[in-house]
Amino acid sequence: xxxxxxxxxxxxxxxxxxxxxxxxxxxxxxxxxxxxxxxxxxxxxxxxxxxxxxxxxxxxxxxxxxxxxxxxxxxxxxxxxxxxxxxxxxxxxxxxxxxxxxxxxxxxxxxxxxxxxxxxxxxxxxxxxxxxxxxxxxxxxxxxxxxxxxxxxxxxxxxxxxxxxxxxxxxxxxxxxxxxxxxxxxxxxxxxxxxxxxxxxxxxxxxxxxx
Length: 211
Description:
The chain is of the alpha/beta class. It has one domain (about 15-205): Rossmann fold (3-Layer(aba) Sandwich). It is built from six helices and seven strands; from the N terminus they run ααββαββαβααββ. It has helices at about 15-20, 30-45, 80, 125-135, 155-160, 160-175; strands spanning about 50-55, 70-75, 90, 110-115, 135-145, 180-185, 195-205. A seven-stranded mixed sheet has the order 3-2-1-4-5-7-6, with helices on both faces. The two termini are about 25 Å apart.
């Protein structure tokens, strides 16, 4: 991608509100990938913190062991988020129309984006906004598999391999702010017995973190 700040196109450019109008209460990764994701989040997120669940749905896959103080969901379908037992509150918000998050600066200890990053048409702007709302040293964990709604995924996603997806999300971090320790991680089951899981995470730099 030559310009990381350009708006990314998709096959289906109809309003996202139409696509997400009906709740889809299904999980998009299998039990093995969910279990693996929970284990990774348990090791990466701060116990007792305030967490933003970006592009939230009816399940967040956060491990109970974290005992988070508060989880805020931001997504496209109110009914889905209302059925999510891990959310303390939720906000309906279309990031492809408004990439700026409706929160004050430095209010979250962590943020997650689970199996949804492929749908962001302005990912760098969104990642910049996540950087803004995180506290210094706050961590952003982006996870995904090899599943998607292809007509709503952006072209750079549907035209790349899984390794390319890891590189692409890493680029989003690199282009969007002062992040420390950008790390790409993968869990690919042998012989394709389970859904693969990929993560890219980083922390907001403590140095010069004021905007």
